[in-house]
């Protein structure tokens, strides 16, 4: 019999940690303090804003008199982080660990039929303050980054059982023999040998008896272990398309009366690797996973409702994902129940290491092993969990040293599942342990974020990843560097993190927070702050004239996110050595708020969700156009591929090219086989003479009964000689690596060399600087004087101070132009292209962009010239610029992971600013680098020359 203790409890927020010294755990002393009410379960920051440290809980309960001669057990589903328990002023025990269940025997401490008092002292993770409590300091314990999640955040109950109790039941399904091995641990709490009647039943999904076994067993005092192998006749296998679950029950009787019982659902399934391919139930499966934090708008660490949990799992499956990777927090029981029932593969996640958290302290090895042991023991009967992931991006020697020992421990605790020792392979390269294997298999596990522009070079990087160099010799990929750390060429590979980011529709989100949210929890606060920050940034840059309705800005970000995700996935699926990928992320919150395909309220983010779904389909047709931006007299290479997880089938393939005014300029019909795996469908060197403007390649694949099984589209732009006519204007040039001058000479553009006495009416173009060129700084001082005296100077490289890097704080003050070009605050590549965070580079309507699309976020034809650095909060006219947010807030104070993203910043990509009596134009766009390679770079250069001569 079980009684729930959930409900309204008393709590003392012991902010100064006085409770132990003053015996507040005694009921008489507790009663004298100022205590408040709190719901159990809940995270206490939902009641007291950002509270962390100590909370002392109290509740009172009555148990039936019939429990007088029973073993009584107090159960906690999860309390974060350290728990100490008293009943009726008597000590019970303690537990350490914030995300797994635990229990205490309390029958000698309670009084049946009378009121009992339960007091629970909890120490939460210390994250935001410098408190040091009972040996636990700031960032020293395992922490999930979504919220503090302090206190009793999951259910509490009390139950009665007989003297023969079930301590553990572990089911090992084996599909090769269609058996289920029941490992049963019975504890005899008596001092004598006792006879137990043990009955095991397996029921079908409809409740019909499948198999049973009953025996009389002599149990000695203490623990007694049984291992029974039951044959499952006509076994039905659990899969993502047919999540068939059996119901198991184990009953222990003594003298004909039930002493204890246990029930759990389980599935017959096996997940492993065969011939360098993932297999589920002896069938190959290509893994398409979604990264998942498990943060919720109100419940924080726990779903706001079962319906919300169902929705996010359903949307993941509908988007084509067959696996979810919960990240650094064991998922709650209810959520895992749903994954079992709905049929989604799940990664078993441990809260043992998260990007330098917990920090290095002498406690680190203990907390790692403690969490690993408890998480696996608690969840090893989960059918949906097919793999344990132990570490992520290892960054410290002590953790690298623990890789093997923790993998061995995981194998001892659970022989049935695959074990991945480290996602990302940062330490020594990843290893996987196959089911029932004690020695590892080397394995490439890769994390790579392309940012917003998956251009030709970036796409090729995916194709080259983990490929043998010998096989690439003589191909277009020769010399291309693939992705990942500690990668072994030719070895099975999984890209376990990829994706881009975009801001959710904060207008709609904040409306939901105002109607259904909690105003004091971090998600509510940072969603509102982010929306305010974006509005300020748009106003400061003048981009609010492009996006007067900020919702349109958020939706366009989501479009860019979708395009980037789609191209990354297409590139990944064209690499035959890669056997799956994990998109970061299904839902985004805290400092990875941009990564989600769904917002925190579980609403799909328009084109992000839709385009990722397109790329996840079982049959896709990736298109490559090389180059993407085309000189009309040179043409371009068009390639169409097929990728299919299904059996080969006859197909009719239609390839069309449509101009921007809707005219069809090319058509090709192919009757061919759409092969299982990766195949080349069509390739042509397209003659583009006479082409001008934007075009779209459309591909449609129909099977032999006329059903469309795959389709795709990809755009390109063609520039005619007339569009790229060299300007005739007076200019001066100072160059340091001859790239700019060589191009101008080749195109017949007349110029003079810059010298200090140059006429101020002649504008100056400044080429790229050679790194560490001693003459560069001296030349810049002369150029500054030229501008101050009334001249116009254009810088194609800005060597300002770089901030927001791995070690530098983000500078958010506005900066005047007096020290340009050296005085600008620069953002590094990670920040301006955006790893998994939206970094939107916006183009205004301006003569510099004549003949090019404007009033939009850069993508498409801008992919090569797209900036990788930007000038932060610089004063002047923003002709093009970037808006983003700090995704590593308060790095020095280590607050990241919990308070959401940092401040919104704005930066210039193309800036025009007064300078003395003259002007400067500074650009971080990659114009000079792509001269004679990309017509867009040429067009921009000519536009700049024309603009500065007007």
From TrEMBL:
Domain Glycosyl hydrolases family 2 sugar binding: residue ranges: 4-157
Pfam families in the cross-refs: Glyco_hydro_2 (PF00703), Glyco_hydro_2_C (PF02836), Glyco_hydro_2_N (PF02837)
Annotated keywords: Glycosidase, Hydrolase
The organism's place on the tree of life at top rank: Bacteria
All copies of domain Glycoside hydrolase family 2 catalytic, residue ranges: 273-426
Glycoside hydrolase family 2 immunoglobulin-like beta-sandwich domain boundaries: 166-269
Record family assignment: Belongs to the glycosyl hydrolase 2 family.
Protein name listed in UniProt: Beta-galactosidase
Species the sequence originates in: Algibacter mikhailovii
